[in-house]
Amino acid sequence: MHYDIFNGDADGICALIQLRLDQAIESTLVTGIKREIQLLDKVSVKPGDSLAVLDISFEKNSQRVAEFLDVGATIFYVDHHQPGEIPSHPNLKTLIDTDNAICTSLLVNKHLNGKYPLWAVTAAFGDNLNHSAENLASSLSLRAEKLETLKNLGVYINYNGYGSSVGDLHFAPDVLYREMVCYASPFDFISDNRTAFEKLENGYQQDMASAENINPEYQSDTVAVFILPDIAWARRVSGVFGNHLANLNPTKAHAVLSYNKDGGYLISVRAPLSNKVGADEFCSGFATGGGRKSAAGINHLPKDQLGVFIDQFDKFYSARMS
Question: Residue 218: its pLDDT value, please?
């Protein structure tokens, strides 16, 4: 049996689209909301099984990787988060690069020798790697309006991955993947499947309009902290709103807090676009934190720790920016 295990955001979905356009195989899809990263816990493998694992932390899944290799499974692992120690094993192939200009779909694009670059461009935009997306697109002779279309699609797919459960999303990530995987080009998906595209577009625009009415809970010269209400639209928009704020104020770090099912806060952190480092280091200082240098998060912060979080967040980036 083959398993395709992937993050439910734009990067994970678009990375798998590229792989399956290149090699269509029968597979069991394993995914979830963007923050659900220990996806290998959902799988039980047998000798001879194979897995493609895309855009989820190797470090957070390393125990399962070791177990599956011991059983006799073969694993192809592509990611751009801090991996921890990567074992050497004949049944394990990894493509892992933590450079803050890289995402999983860009790694897959390189692996496939640029076979489906439009999907990689879409994913890079979704991960707010706008310069990387534009650099790849520059070789494709895209008109400005075409590039903007890919940017919008990437943002919409990424937006769809956020929530406290799949029930918050417009599409379950595996359903959205199936809607798109039959199209060699994102433009074909947009023109041929208007119903799905417009559901994403309308949802994004409505939710962002609501988010833009939220005032910061705290702000200084170096950081801004926003708390969203405990409602489905706020949980959906929590990640892309952080990207939006980062683009509006590129010299500030931003934290967007929404409420989680455990009675605390789910936090998305964005490093300043002018210095895209430190988000992973800062968030890893909390028990449920982690991520990338430019974008990271904390899955659960108790409500009584809000003041501590804000104080540490401001001090951390004030020291970085001084």
Answer: 97
Q: Say how far apart CA 242 and CA 168 lie, in whole Å.
A: 18
Give mean pLDDT in consecutive 10-residue pieces for the chain, a chain of 322 residues: 97 98 97 93 97 96 98 98 94 96 97 98 96 96 96 97 90 98 98 98 96 95 96 89 93 94 91 93 93 90 96 96 74
Q: What pLDDT, on the 0 to 100 scale, is given for residue 35?
A: 85
Predicted TM-score (pTM) of this structure = 0.89
Report the alpha-carbon angle 257-55-14, nearest 5.
100
- Residue 290 pLDDT: 87
Distance, CA of 26 to CA of 70 (rounded, Å): 24
Amino acid at the residue 288: T
What is each CA distance from 187 to 10, 35, 71, 146, in whole angstroms?
A: 15, 28, 42, 9
pLDDT of 261 reads: 83
- Amino acid (1-letter code) at residue 195: T
- Cα–Cα distance, 182 to 101 (Å, whole number): 28
Backbone Cα Rg of the chain: 19
In this prediction, residue 244 carries a pLDDT of 92
